[in-house]
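tool_call predict_complex ligand=DLL
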Amino acid sequence: MSSNNKIEYIAREELESLQFRRLKDTLERVYKSSPFYRKMFKENGLNPSKFKSLKDLSLIPFTTRQDLRDNFPYGLLSVPLEKVIRLHTSTGTTGKPKAVLFTQKDIDQASELIARSMRMTGAKRDDVFQNMMSYGLFTGGLIFHYGAEKLGLLVIPAGAGNTERQIQLMRDFKTTVIHITPSYALYLADVMEDMGLDPKHDLSLRIAYLGAEPYSEETRVKIQDIFGVDAYNSYGLSEMNGPGVAFECREKEGMHLWEDNFIMEIIDPSTGKVLEDGEEGELVLTSINREAMPILRYRTGDLTYIYPERCRCGRTHRRIARLKGRVDDMFIVRGVNVFPSEIERVLMSLPEVGRNYQIVLEREKNLDKLRVRVEVKGDLFNGSLEHLRKLEDRIRTRLRSELMLTPQVELVEAGSLPRTTGKAKRVIDKRKI
Ligand code: DLL
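tool_result ok
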């Protein structure tokens, strides 16, 4: 422990009293200034003086994504517009995006959390950091960028895409640390191999930060092996600053959620009941260190659980488990609930499977069909048909025993499925059309 990371080891009691102080401040501010929360408090007979302990948080109704949309763009703003200096929006939504606003203090605090997370994993001032997440409205670019600068690394704001230039930059500047979506990392490896380069030996990487989309432990291991890096899971969402909400330490067993900035709860997504540590459910977050736009009891839609035990690293902020997916990611095929992450886990544990897959849902004569399209390693596809049939059978059997469903398995050539440089779209549901 050093003086600049004391907060990571703060005693639980002290942490909880800090949380309560910050919660009270936040409640006062939103009650006074946010039209949305003022109305919500009035309708529910609440006012900030009613809150006597952290437990009273449960008096507040949940805030949902729909609330953010309905009150777009300024309904949740809790400071005068003249104090606002930045806008980000959330990605991947249809219709109106969710606007997220920042004051200078909010940007400083978000950067501090990124710097803290990077320092925790061993990034140092003499590292060269290439940020391969998209810059602009998405938080993965600018928020991470500011944090890395705060820590004092050399930052290359490469953004997503333009893969050959990325590789050139990594080679020219001997990049040691990258920030990238896991799906883009696998794509990058394919491109390098096509160029006759070995990601492990022809680059100087030692750390990769992976986040912004769900992926399996098996994918992490794959990326670590291909690039010869330590890969760390990073979780966040625009509504709560973007990245830097929860981050793995060197133990790589769950992500420390920075509880001095966020209060976390896990709820049963269908009843809203608050669950115990260790029980899986939907993550609900309250930002307690935001000026422009604090959000109370926000339903993230993300499924995880809280580790009940203290981490071996000694940090006191509790950890959340690798995200299982989103509540709305889950699809139901013939009555069976399936998470794409379960399919990925099976596929990525098979050595013959390549780096990409796609899940296609179809309806034929009122019967749901699940088809999994799987890229196989390059040379295998040119091998004997019998060999491929056997592999198909093996994948099908493994998926059947995990999912209790028999999917159709279609093997395809490496590199033939669509790629993105940002968040991957894995599930094509044709049933709704
Ligand atoms: O994805 C912020 C971010 C940027 C996080 C860079 C990490 C790295 P949004 O675009 O608002 O913000 O998307 C947030 O992405 O609710 C999760 O469903 C998903 N997500 C983010 N990180 C992870 C992760 C950014 N490590 C939504 N594992 C969240 C699984 C993740 N899902």
